[in-house]
Design brief:
This protein is α+β, with helices and mostly antiparallel strands and 470 residues long. It is 31% helix and 16% strand. The radius of gyration is 51 Å and the shape is globular. The protein starts with 135 loop residues before the first helix and ends in an 8-residue tail after the last helix.
Length: 470
């Protein structure tokens, strides 16, 4: 008997009809051949075009075949076209076009569904394509790209280097001892072309202990006297290093004495100017006797000289003959070798084995200073903190310069000295007329050749090529 039942639960019954062991809610209780037709669109609570309730596939029924007591798929509803479904495009659970095949569901979901327009995970303008940009949340939670890590790492290293370089610059500049040695006075020579340095090596024992004075054979004399003096000209026509004998017989300008009383101008040995008035009077004496305006001044004592040599690891020198000097303590064999600070100081001071005494010593001084500048200005010294910092601390700490001289100027000085030693410049001595001039006081002094000396001095002032004078 075909009756409509009220959906009582049965033993495994099919709520939509078909073969089942229990009652049917809408179909025949014994597996009738017809099912209840779908509700009209207007009465369907899911709205027009809603999908009909999915009907489970009974066990043992071939997939894709019509089920007994179940109508075929309803007409295609909006949003469930042939190219949409749970499986491959255009397919439902069954094969397309076969009765009983379930309609496909869009892969991205319909409106409001996950992945669909307006649904969760959607992006403005449509779904996000595979491999597309990540959402801000994903980008923030992910790791930094390698390129960004490298960029910021390089940036950090550059900042650290810049801070270190600036700090080192100010630290090194603070080590310099400045003195007001370049002053104006009536009749001072006008500024010339190029740059002229007055370089003075003094016999100051400042900074040496008693034991060091013994080891260096310097004696214990107080004060300071000029042990050597040179003018370095840096210009467009080559760099020239000119030594001035410390016994040069020249006029000394009027100046204030140690007690503050004026000392009248007088002719004397040039090193007496340094002993009486320091770097200021020596600079004025050199300027008035040569007509060359001094642009920068540098002075170093015994302790600073030894410290610089030792900080660069010694200076390579080639000695022409064996040297043994009791006064300076020097004992060297002929040949190329590295001199430490103690040996280097004795080498530039000794003169008794030289036939021309002070003149021979000045040649050794020029040779050594060129080698020292080459060593100090090399990348192996400047870029190595284990040599650069000791060089600055021990060398610049005892160096006296004029008020306007800075690290850049000192760098130019070392490079110019390096060029002179490398053969692109010249090393000369003030032209001399008599190396053993007898003064009216009975002293032995050095007298310049005024005519030849003027040619050299004019070349310095005008930055022209220095003539070769015999």
């Amino acid at each position: 008997m075909n009756t409509w039942q009220e959906g009582r639960p049965g033993g495994g019954g099919n709520p939509y009809g078909g073969n089942g062991g229990g009652g049917a809610a809408y179909g025949h209780g014994s597996g009738g051949s017809a099912a209840e037709p779908p509700l009209p669109a207007g009465l369907n609570p899911r709205g027009p075009g809603a999908q009909a309730p999915r009907q489970p596939q009974p066990q043992g029924q071939p997939q894709g075949q019509p089920q007994q007591g179940r109508p075929g798929p309803p007409p295609q509803a909006p949003g469930y076209g042939p190219a949409q479904g749970y499986g491959q495009p255009g397919q439902g659970y069954g094969q397309p076009g076969q009765p009983g095949a379930r309609p496909s569901v869009p892969a991205q979901g319909g409106p409001g569904r996950p992945g669909g327009p307006g649904g969760p995970g959607s992006a403005p303008g449509g779904p996000i394509a595979p491999g597309g940009p990540q959402s801000p949340t994903t980008a923030r939670s992910g790791r930094w790209p390698r390129r960004r890590i490298v960029k910021w790492s390089v940036f950090g290293v550059l900042i650290a280097l810049m801070v270190t370089s600036v700090s080192t610059w100010f630290w090194a500049d603070s080590k310099l001892n400045h003195e007001n040695v370049l002053v104006d006075y009536p009749g001072r020579p006008a500024a010339g072309k190029g740059t002229n340095w007055l370089i003075v090596g003094s016999d100051s024992r400042n900074g040496l202990s008693d034991s060091q004075e013994e080891d260096l054979h310097t004696g214990h004399a107080g004060g300071k006297r000029s042990d050597s003096m040179m003018i370095l000209h840096v210009g467009d026509n080559g760099n020239t290093l000119m030594s001035i004998p410390r016994d040069s017989w020249v006029p000394i300008p009027e100046h204030a004495g140690e007690n503050g009383k004026p000392v009248k101008a007088a002719t004397s040995k040039i090193n007496s100017a340094f002993a009486s008035g320091g770097g200021k009077l020596l600079t004025q004496t050199v300027e008035t006797n040569t007509g060359i305006r001094i642009d920068h001044y540098a002075e170093i004592g015994f302790a600073g000289f030894v410290g610089i040599v030792d900080s660069v690891g010694g200076v390579d020198m080639c000695i022409e003959q064996d040297v043994k000097d009791k006064d300076s303590g020097l004992d060297l064999k002929a040949g190329c070798q590295s001199l430490n600070g103690t040996q280097a100081l004795a080498f530039v001071r000794q003169r008794h084995q030289m036939a021309d005494q002070d003149l021979g010593r000045m040649r050794n001084q020029q040779q050594f200073l060129g080698a020292l500048a080459k060593q100090a200005a090399s990348p192996a010294t400047v870029l190595n903190p284990f040599t650069f910092y000791p060089l600055v601390s021990s060398g610049l700490g005892t160096l006296i310069v004029d008020d306007d001289a800075g690290l850049t100027d000192l760098g130019s000085l070392f490079l110019a000295m390096k060029d002179v030693n490398g053969g692109s410049g010249k090393s000369i001595t003030v032209p001399i007329a008599n190396p053993d001039f007898k003064t009216n006081t009975g002293e032995s002094a050095v007298k310049w050749d005024a005519a030849k000396a003027k040619q050299v001095f004019d070349a310095f002032k005008n930055d022209t090529a220095v003539p070769d004078l015999k």
